[in-house]
Design a protein that fits this description.
Blueprint: H1 17-35, H2 41-54, E1 60-64, H3 70-75, E2 81-86, H4 89-101, E3 107-111, E4 124-130, H5 139-147, E5 150-161, H6 169-180, H7 192-201, E6 204-210, E7 220-227
The structure holds S-adenosylmethionine (SAM).
């Protein structure tokens, strides 16, 4: 099937103040984030394989918080079209540089806040959110906005750091200290149980909750969930 024209993102003016604060943080660290190696490459590849096996060539896919586009570039070839979005213009600039070097007709990158992704209607077969749900200012509001774009019966695939599963000193002391020093963005602290409960409140049926890390207990849970019909 031929790639269809991808819908355009909303004007950046609709971005919330909390998301603008995320954008400022990620704009500042984007080049370093792009240069840093993936900490657990085997775990990352396991997630990619899991997602690739679930995508279909006829799927229209949305990724929120796509960062520098590494994952979107790996996945887009297996879809009809992939719209990869991020609130950070610098992250998207890097993603577009990569796309220019590695063209893929199915893929487009846009600057957009996940929470105001808009009144576009339920048009995506699959929505992806990797390492971003804990950065939303409000999980329920963010899920509302993102899931409104998912077709009934569509798949929501996410991988999310569950900071409440770490040593409590990290979210309670270290993260606030790093935030004060400008070295961490604002984060939500929840465990996988609370995350799964939030999904279920939003009409998702959780089909799998997995940990793909290969180095130590992985606090990032991969959840495969389906939107009710
Ligand atoms: C930890 S990075 C993860 C990037 C990529 N998904 C990955 O797994 O490498 C988090 C990304 O989420 C983006 N982000 C944070 N808040 C967002 C929001 N409200 N809407 C869209 N993107 C957001 C940041 O700009 C950043 O690029």
């Amino acid at each position: 099937m031929q790639p269809q024209p991808l819908p355009t993102a909303p004007p950046a003016a609709t971005t919330t103040p909390a998301a603008l604060s995320q954008a400022r943080f990620w704009n500042r660290v984007a080049r370093k984030y792009a240069a840093d190696p993936i900490a657990d490459m085997a775990g990352y590849e396991a997630t990619l394989r899991r997602v690739q096996a679930l995508l279909r060539p006829e799927h229209s896919v949305l990724e929120v918080g796509c960062g520098t586009g590494t994952t979107a570039l790996r996945l887009a070839g297996g879809t009809r079209q992939l719209l990869a979005t991020d609130v950070s213009s610098e992250m998207i600039a890097i993603a577009r540089e990569k796309l220019a070097r590695q063209p893929c007709p199915q893929l487009r990158f846009e600057v957009a806040d996940a929470e105001v992704l808009l009144a576009r209607g339920a048009q995506f077969d699959t929505v992806l959110a990797f390492n971003v749900l804990h950065l939303l200012p409000d999980l329920d509001r963010g899920l509302d906005a993102v899931l409104a774009l998912l077709k009934p019966g569509g798949l929501f695939m996410s991988k999310t750091p569950c900071l409440a599963e770490m040593n409590p000193l990290i979210p309670r002391l270290l993260v606030p200290l790093m935030r004060a020093l400008g070295k961490a963005p604002p984060v939500l602290v929840f465990d996988a149980h609370a995350l799964q409960a939030a999904f279920e409140r939003h009409g998702l049926v959780v089909e799998a909750a997995e940990r793909h890390g290969t180095k130590r207990r992985d606090m990032r849970v991969f959840i495969l969930a389906r939107k009710g019909r």
